[in-house]
Design goal:
8-stranded antiparallel β-barrel, alpha+beta, 169 residues, 2 helices, globular, single chain
């Protein structure tokens, strides 16, 4: 006995509905993942460690004091300086001695790539950064946030480890 045309139509509709729901579920999971990661970023962090990696493999510790902040609306700001900057000012007598970084902007997260891009809106110490996207590879471990920097060839050239001070809750 051959199935009726209406039976095949019902099976096709059920299959289509199942596939549509499965696709919707996958999209919802991706959205939830993005929302979970966005929420995990929210907070104020202090710099625990900053190292750079030379092409020959040498690891150079950088003695910096710094803060970074991410808010729930997708904004970010970062500011940091060499720990010895006040002593440099004393030694030179020049109050305009500068060093470090300071910028703010929007933070876009790409969960699949494991990156956060800081889209620079303002950078008083380096105005040439305005309009640029500064890509960082992120990893969370409890209250620690590690942001890694890669050069054009994909080689890791720096890594900053931040400790959450306040989660904004």
């Amino acid at each position: 006995m051959r199935p009726k045309r209406s039976t095949w139509l019902a099976i096709a509709m059920l299959f289509g509905l199942t596939m549509d729901l499965a696709g919707h579920r996958a999209s919802a999971q991706q959205t939830d993942s993005l929302e979970v990661v966005k929420a995990e970023f929210v907070g104020n962090y202090e710099l625990m460690q900053y190292v750079t990696f030379q092409p020959g493999g040498e690891v150079i510790p950088r003695d910096y004091v710094a803060r970074i902040m991410y808010d729930p609306l997708g904004n970010m700001s970062a500011i940091g300086m060499p720990s010895d900057l006040p002593h440099r000012v004393e030694a030179t007598g020049d109050e305009r001695t500068i060093g470090g970084f300071a910028y703010f902007g929007r933070a876009d997260i790409d969960v699949a790539a494991g990156t956060v891009t800081h889209h620079v809106i303002g950078a008083p110490m380096r105005p040439e950064l305005v309009g640029q996207g500064r890509v960082r590879y992120y990893a969370f471990d409890g209250d620690l946030l590690t942001l890694s920097i890669k050069d054009e060839s994909g080689r890791m050239s720096g890594q900053l480890t931040w400790r959450r001070m306040w989660a904004g809750k």
